[in-house]
Specification:
By secondary structure, the protein is an alpha+beta fold. It has 6 helices and 17 strands.
Length: 229
């Protein structure tokens, strides 16, 4: 029986990145299979020689999960040459990558893992895992702000999905999103006439940052069940 699997899946199971990210690496030409540039249709197993960015990979990795409390100023792009990159703050015992990025000016909860299938489960639009944020803006919220944000506003040539928005102070609100457009909350607030001055992610699915007692720029090992409940 043939046990070979699609190359992107093999790379994800090896803990390098998600399947979607693996497909991008194949497109970029940095994946080599048996001494030739890889194709998306390649199927491989442990008997094949697979090299990603100059490093040979072999078989599935032990799956690990961490929660990380990202401070402002850390960039989630994994760039060795950028001193502000998250890559300089990751656990060193195994290769992991972030699920649910935050922009450099935002802070809060990030999940780190080498589980590509789980990454897909959390970020794929069909699964709709909620993420909750506390957001502070530059002036008091008007009477219609929460209703307008919750109903959906134009961002990047599309209307954002309906979401939960609750006012918690004169210039602060809580928002629960089930999608992850680039700088979505900042763009939504801007459309409504406000500037975000602090964006703090406090929850991903069932995992709450407050329950972890986790200082900024620190990580802690967790279980997958802590995230999905």
């Amino acid at each position: 029986m043939d046990t070979k699997i699609r190359l992107a899946k093999y790379i994800a199971h090896a803990g390098i990145c998600s399947r979607k990210q693996a497909s991008r690496l194949i497109d970029e030409g940095v994946v080599i299979v048996n001494n030739r540039p890889a194709n998306h249709i390649d199927h491989v197993d442990e008997n094949d020689r697979v090299i990603v960015n100059g490093h040979a990979i072999k078989g599935p990795a032990d799956l690990v999960y961490f929660a990380y409390h990202k401070p402002v100023g850390i960039d989630c792009k994994l760039n060795h040459h950028d001193p502000s990159s998250l890559i300089h703050h990751l656990p060193q015992l195994t290769r992991v990558y972030p699920i649910g990025r935050l922009d450099k000016d935002s802070r809060g909860l990030i999940i780190l893992t080498n589980d590509g299938d789980f990454c897909n489960q959390l970020i794929h639009p069909d699964f709709h895992q909620p993420k909750r944020y506390l957001v502070t803006v530059n002036k008091p919220l008007d009477a219609h702000f929460c209703e307008k944000m919750a109903a959906g506003v134009p961002v990047d040539k599309q209307i954002t999905r309906p979401c939960e928005v609750v006012k918690i102070a004169s210039n602060q609100f809580s928002i629960v999103l089930k999608q992850g457009l680039n700088r979505q909350i900042r763009k939504m607030a801007h459309y409504c006439g406000y500037k975000v001055i602090d964006l703090y992610r406090v929850q991903i699915s069932e995992l709450l940052l407050d329950h972890l007692n986790l200082p900024e720029n620190q990580f802690i090992k967790i279980n997958k069940s802590d995230i999905l409940g």
